[in-house]
Design a protein that fits this description.
It contains 6 helices and 12 strands. With about 240 residues, it is of the alpha/beta class. Helix 1 crosses helix 6 and helix 4 crosses helix 5. It binds NADP nicotinamide-adenine-dinucleotide phosphate (NAP).
């Protein structure tokens, strides 16, 4: 078996760390400038579209793909599932369960980034835990103070007035997040429903501070095999 592990999440790294000696390669999109070191041979950068991915599978003699990309990386997941089915390569998606609100949480579910503005009064201070890729979709929040946290120092100016970047590399503890949101005077938190324990800390901090959360729902899921835990992902690898 030659395994391709599609990474970009903490769990992909955990899976890789438990595959020593396996014939496996991890692939990163290259979105983060200095990604954490990976415990497996690593390739970085897109495959060059669907045709490039088909070619890569063949050239690298890949026989199984474990897709541990982010739950919002919908394009790579749908494409990979489809192509693997087409060419007869085993495929599974690692997909963490979504977050669900607990007692004391004040969440409003939204379907798109643009919808957030309909829930947020002018002049509010808004913290975006959504990354920089989809930042332009929040342009209708101009008139608010918008703070977008990202891992790398910004390479370009903030795309709309009233906003700024804040550089920070996870993980962040609840104590860190409470201190940060208090210092910044955050009125609203916007997040994607990524799931997973490490980044839930911002939601716990919001609950403790009484900050309302706008929770962006996950993109629709296709009909392909899914595992929800690192252990099940490793079990799948053992069976292929
Ligand atoms: P996407 O829209 O689904 O994919 C865009 C393109 O990025 C793909 O067509 C592919 O390029 C390339 N790509 C994505 N993941 C790759 C991987 N693991 N290895 C090689 N190429 C990859 O993905 P995205 O939302 O931009 O996310 C990009 C990466 O960031 C993913 O690996 C994801 O796990 C990670 N990430 C995403 C989010 C998020 O909120 N979307 C959050 C945290 C981390 P080609 O067409 O050239 O092959």
């Amino acid at each position: 078996m030659t395994l391709l592990l599609l990474g970009g999440t903490g769990e992909a790294r955990q899976i890789a760390a438990r595959l020593p000696g396996h014939d496996a390669v991890i692939s990163l999109a290259g979105a983060t400038r200095n990604p954490a070191a990976q415990p497996l041979p690593t390739r970085v950068g897109g495959f060059g579209g669907a045709a490039g991915f088909r070619r890569y599978l063949k050239d690298a003699s890949i026989t199984a793909v474990l897709d541990a990309t982010h739950p919002f990386a919908a394009a790579i997941t749908a494409r990979t599932a489809l192509i693997c089915r087409e060419v007869g390569v085993a495929y599974v998606q690692f997909l963490r369960p979504p977050w669900v609100p607990a007692a004391g949480d004040n969440w409003t579910q939204i379907r798109t980034e643009a919808e957030a503005a309909t829930h947020i009064p002018h002049g509010s201070t808004v913290f975006l835990g959504t990354g920089r890729q989809t930042l332009a979709n929040f342009a209708n929040l101009a008139g608010c103070t918008v703070i977008c946290r990202q891992i790398d120092p910004p390479g370009q100016p903030f795309p709309f007035p009233g906003g700024r970047f804040l550089v920070g590399r996870p993980p962040f503890s609840v104590t860190d997040e409470v201190a940060l949101f208090s210092d910044l005077g955050v009125d609203y938190l916007i997040v994607k429903n990524a799931g997973g324990a490490p980044s839930r800390t911002k939601l716990t901090a919001a609950r403790e501070l009484g900050i309302p959360v706008l929770m962006i729902a996950r993109p629709p899921q296709g009909n392909w095999p899914v595992v929800a835990t690192v252990d099940d992902a490793l079990k799948w690898v053992g069976e292929h």
